[in-house]
Amino acid sequence: MTQRIRDVMSPAAVSVEPMTTVTRAARLMREQDIGDVLVAYDCDLFGVLTDRDIVLRTVADGRDPDDTTVGSVCTPPPVVTLAPEDTTERAVELMRQYAVRRLPVVEHGGCPVGVVSLGDLAALEDCRSALADISAAAPDH
């Protein structure tokens, strides 16, 4: 069933400025139990930093996360985004086309307002699917 992104997205996306350290961003991810943060300056979306970016572009490259900025390791522009008025079908198309699991949701003017994930879409499609179960599970602490 096709729905609007505003109805399925996770609102209140966490964002950091490009000069934020990777360590600070990783701590925010842990505190908020999320796998990504948006990298933005005011309402300008600069990129997306995922837990995978931290591992592959920081740790695996031997960079010090205390001295590395998120702007230097995040998925760089152009960032594929959705609008709140877009459909879930559009989100699926974009995720397939760009091989991503999360898409920032931005309002007119580019201001980030949320994130829609593959898990959000899986839960919508079939709330009993394995991916929906994993997405709904309590975090490991």
From TrEMBL:
Residues 9-65, 74-134 form the CBS domain. Keywords: CBS domain, Repeat. It comes from the Bacteria. SMART domains: CBS. The keyword Repeat applies. InterPro entries: CBS_dom, CBS_dom_sf, CBS_domain-containing. PANTHER family: CBS DOMAIN-CONTAINING PROTEIN CBSX2, CHLOROPLASTIC, CBS DOMAIN-CONTAINING PROTEIN YHCV. This is CBS domain-containing protein. It comes from Streptomyces griseicoloratus.
